[in-house]
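help with this.
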Amino acid sequence: MIRHSWCLGILLTLAASEVSAQPGPQPEVPGAEAPGPEAEAPVSETPPATPTGPVVNPPALLEAPPPVFPQRALADRVHGIVVVELTISAEGSVTAAAAGSVTVIPEGDLPRAGDGRYGFGEAAVAAAQQMVFRPATYGDQPFEVQINYTYRFALPPKPATPADTAKDEEPPKGPAQVNFEGSLLERGSRSVVPGATITVYRGKGDDAEGFEATSTADGTFQFYDLPEGQWKVRIEREGYIPVETTEAISTTEVVSGKYWIEKGSYSEYDLTIEAERPKKEVNRRSLSVAQIAKVPGPISDDPVLVIENLPGVARSTVASGDIIVRGSGPQDTGVFVNGVAVPLIYHFGGLKSVLPSKAIGGIDFYPGNYSVQYGRATGGILDLKLKRLEPDIVHGSVDISVLDTSLYLEAPIGDKAAIAVAGRRSYIDVVLANTIPDDIGLAITSAPRYYDYQLLGNYRPKAAHEFRWLALGSDDLLELLFDDPADQAGPNIATSNDFSARTSFQRLINDYRYTPSEKLSNHARFSIGRDNLDFSALGQFRFELTQLTTTIRNTFTYKFNDNLTLDAGIDSQLARVDLSIRLPGGPPQEGVNDNDNGPVEERILEQDLEGKYYLDAAPFLEASMNLGNLLLVPGLRLDYFGNAQAWSADPRITARYALPSEVALKGGVAVVHQSPNFADLDAVFGNPDLALQRAFQYSVGADWGITENIRLDGTLFYKTLDNVVRPTDEFIERDGKMVPERLDNAGEGRVYGAEFFLEHQFNGKFNGWLSYTLSRAERKDSPGEAYRRFDFDQTHILALVGSYQLGGNWELGARYRYVTGNPSTPIIGAVFNSELDEYSPVFGENNSDRLASFQQFDIRIDKTWVFDTWKFSGYLSLINATNHENVEGTTYNYDYTEKGSVNGLPVLPIFGVKGEW
């Protein structure tokens, strides 16, 4: 059974849905009248619409029989408030109820703690045991949850005595009439505010009188038959600033009001439901957007960029956008959106991700030992989860920074569906055109221009069925013009002075979840997409790739009991590839320095392929077994790689053992396979006989909940790699001819180290974490050789991240990073090449040197101004605020006798404004 901790979001969501008690049937209180509607708080059929986190939905109240007002309390004119602690099962029934705090309020007196004499607690518990909820769900998986629920026992008017009736000789009253009503809206978003308490009162001492109501699911409230005159109105809900005003009430007309209520804080951390999901993987990092939206970084408000601050992730070179996980190359980490593979997640230069933060519900990141539901990658896994759209009205935002402008709109379609559209367009070319010096020998015609667009939708016709859609597109373009193309490729090669690089892709993802019962669920995904990569330079060189992909994924889950759950499924994709390449020597390889100093034109290789099809398919099976304090998750994945025409079997297992004092031990072993890339398997550029690359992943660690808000996680990891693709000068016989082998599988690799993650979850005003990785990543190019440093080996990787709410809707964030410099191969001399009329470098031992260490301090400040129907915010990020000179590479003079450095970003201010409604 999935259990979730008590958390602020659920408590506020459910506790705010209060119910006012009324007396029992007439015979139980002789002579008493039923209370007027002004003393009741209608029970909403839908919980208040607070933010729900990535994929967690709180329970929704369906049935709530009113409690019986205790007889003694009626007689003594005492009303009360009871907080009941409920346990709601995965079927939606209340399996346990206990009275927590009880407050009694004698009429005309001050509240005091209940002493049990009046029976409010027993009445509330008896009523709570009959409540029925739509269960809480994680995705479509119901789970048991504990919440607090508040009952308010409101006193009815005093019963009239026979003497009073005779004296006044008033005729019987007719039906109660509404004479004061209103609606509550949240300032800045225009969303309705359910679950708020509205109190009308006047007078003092013995003359004091007052009535109370609760706003319903649509944010409205009503009072009936209020006496004429001036009434004070107070509106309260936890998390909001109380509103006080005065209304003149008439008995002959209805007073209607619209009241705007301001939240105490508009930080995205507020009211986030943090779900303690079953921790099956050894090192899954699951982050909600609320946790990461305000992390200072290269560009503001892009949650995907937070990945570089997590353990196990090495620093990529400036503006590369690579994701380098535990000593594996960027191409070895799988990137997914809702479980569907995409070719990239960042625009050119790693400036922004291809999805807006408004569309992301959360991020799952696995540096290793991931589920058998993922494969075809020997590095890590990054899966972006789309949020479930639940707007009550049309909402939107416009974000304008010095680099781009983005637009987001979402709207409900009835009460079962919603839709959202988003888009972004950059204007970096304008910025660079005014900052790049005129004497560097090139002109920028489009550098780099990017845009993306998204169309999201979800539809839930019934509780067991949910449909989601995403149409996603991304396009990047970089164009340069060189003043002297001969400097780039020699006088006999260049026929033009242009350089162009363009990447684009589109995806249409269809997602269907079927959950007919607590035991059974099925999750199906179908996607079609197109990927394009076009590179051309100097009229001679090109790399053009077009790939059409159809993806089908299906996961069937059956829960036998609380101790055994089985997942079975298929992960498949069919692709058509068109490829055209003209390059000197072929695509670059890791760890290789170009020592071939022959004429460029003699080293050019060409290949054109059209209509090349391949099918990847992988059935998988995984079990989750609860054995007391031990959770075992064994699994098996069988992969067929159509490109390499090879099968693999990947057994994996993880274990987690819970100890006392919030400590858990964890470990895992996994086998993972990955196919060589398409170009490496080509007969012209590579070797079509290459085998699958393989990795063995081992990890062991522990996590410790030090306090309710502070958690420490530590992991030791070790990974071996074999069948690693490496260049070779050997010749082999193929189709009766001796040809260059070019590539083989003789390479090896190993990665080992430790990761630490100390997190302070949001509490009060602060959220932050410390991430540290100590690692060694090595490669062996040939059997018998010594291991050398991997191109992305970084010994120390430290990140300190924090965000603090200053009050008044000001927020301050900061980040500090320290990383060991990347390995580099020194140039130890040069020889003059008379044929080329230039000096050619002589390289030293591969990756035997290092660049200087990297240090960067970033700071960001946000301010939000709240108006009735919209919000306006401004933010300023200072990237590399201390202007530290970080070395990204080395340059040499013409004969390699002097060298200089290529530095990264200087201090860079990023200013932006955002409007939301």
Notes: The chain is about 5% helix and 55% strand. The mean pLDDT is 80. The two ends are 39 Å apart (CA to CA). Residues 403 and 428 are 5 Å apart (CA to CA).
